[in-house]
Write a structure and sequence with these properties.
alpha+beta; TIM Barrel; three-stranded mixed β-sheet; 4 helices; 45% helix; elongated
Length: 97
Amino acid sequence: MDEKMALKSILAKRLITTVFQPVIHIATERVVGYEALSRGPDGPLQYPYKFLTVAARYGYSLEIEQLCLKRAKELISTMPAELKVFVNLSPTRWKKN
């Protein structure tokens, strides 16, 4: 499957998953939040650098970022309210919305 078809499959099947990396307060060494990190399915588009580059190449940047954000938000509701969640988004997303 070529990379464009693989990306379209990821979008259609919502194959982005979210993993959370702890953000630690240095002075207290306590977890104060998490950074949401997106991952594609195993294969050539597994890591964000690759699937975001392919998305940009074929005009799907907004769609892939929306999916990444949606998948992170689905899990955030299961976390304690006092914890913060950080998500990386491109400046392009803010210009369009």
